[in-house]
Design brief:
mainly alpha; 0% strand
Amino acid sequence: MNPSKMHGFPLIIPAKQAYAPDLEKIMFEAIYDKVGPAGTIIAILSFISLYLFLASAVYLAWIPRGFRTFLAALKKNQPSVTEDQAQKNPLSLVVWTALAHQTPRAELQGEISYLFQRNFGRTTVSLTILRLISVISPLLGLLGTVLGISRVFREISMQAVVDNAAMAGGIWEALITTIMGMSVAIPTLVFYYLLRMRTRALLMDCMESTRDLMRS
C-alpha cells in the first residue's frame, strides 16, 4: 500500500529541513540588524561565559571527592597508593609531588602554589577568559551604542523632514548594546569570583593536607 495515499487522501510529506537554512539566515540577519556587530559579539560572549562557568564549576565540584579518598589511603600508608593513582586527581598529584620533593616547610607554600597553578591550567585559563569577558562586554556595548547613534544622526542628516518617532526608535536600538554589555558583564564577574573563591579554598585545603601529612 502506497503510504502517500492512505485512506484515499494523498499524504503530503514535507521536505526535511528544506527551509531551515534560509530561516536561520533570516533570523540571524534580523538580530544582526537590531544589535549590530557589537551586539552579536556580546551575545556570543554570553554563551562562552556560561559554558566556561558551568564546566569549571562541575570540574571543581568533582575533584574533592577523589582527593579525600586519596588522603585517607595515604594516611593509612596503604600500599595501593602510587603515583599513577595520584595522577588521576590534580589535587592528589599536587600533594604527592610536594611530599616526593620533601619540600621544607618554609618553602611549602610557594611549592604548592606553583604545583597548583601547573595542574589547574585549564581552570586558570577559564578564569582569565571570564575576567576578560567581564571587562570587554561593557566596552563593546558602549561601542555599539556610539556606532548606532552615529548611524541615526547620519540618517537624519539625509532626510529633509526629521521623523521624531524614527529617531527615537533608532536611539532605542542603539542603547540595546549597552544594556546587553552590562547584562553579560555583571553575571560574568560573579561567575569569576565564585570560581576564584572555590579555587582558593581548594588551594588552602591542599596546603593544610600536605602539612598534616608532613607532621605525621
